[in-house]
Design brief:
With 176 residues, this protein is mainly beta. It contains 2 helices and 11 strands, in the order βββββαββββββα.
């Protein structure tokens, strides 16, 4: 390949390498009930294909079930259900946003494709309670950002997952 000879024709002219945009920070976010949520900086995340979800009988409505991801069992939480108390219809298109690496991986079931957010601008460090933000998510929101002409609320997913695991056998406590 080092000895590749190109003709002088324009079709074979070497093109100047295209400049790629540089970003200081790339994050992932998602929308629920018209609000936008942002994962903390540095969180490992990936989008799983529409994996079949195996439900667990007698589990809280916000627990969708488990998926097999690369040979690992991964719990999947139905965030739209947590936000609105209405289970997601898995016959409709859905996405599973996987967070953290094994053995700590967990998934969030989402009704919309997650977003890539570049260089969000910090707006506020503390958030006031808002009736438009689902009550079960309010304790896990940290900082407010602005990006893509949208307000984003940073979600502490690790604390949310800890509380969901604690409430697994007491699902009513999340809606009080």
């Amino acid at each position: 390949m080092d000895d590749l000879i190109l003709s002088d024709s324009p079709d074979h002219a070497l093109l100047a390498p295209q400049e790629t945009p540089s970003f200081d920070e790339i994050r992932h976010g998602f929308e629920l009930e018209g609000r936008h949520y942002l994962l903390a900086a540095g969180v490992f995340s990936e989008l799983a294909s529409r994996s079949p979800i195996c439900p667990l009988p007698d589990s809280p409505p916000w627990f969708a079930g488990f998926i097999n991801h690369r040979g690992h069992t991964v719990p999947v939480f139905d965030l739209p259900c947590l936000a609105s108390e209405k289970r997601s219809d898995q016959r409709e298109p859905y996405w599973i946003l996987l967070l953290d690496q094994q053995p700590h991986t967990a998934g969030f079931l989402l009704n919309r494709v997650p977003s890539v957010v570049t260089d969000p601008e910090r707006v506020r460090d503390t958030l006031e309670e808002s009736p438009s933000i689902p009550k079960p998510l309010q304790p896990f929101l940290r900082t407010q950002y602005r990006a893509l002409d949208t307000c984003w609320h940073e979600l502490d997913h690790q604390e949310l997952l800890k509380q969901l695991k604690k409430a697994f056998y007491q699902p009513a406590s999340l809606y009080e």
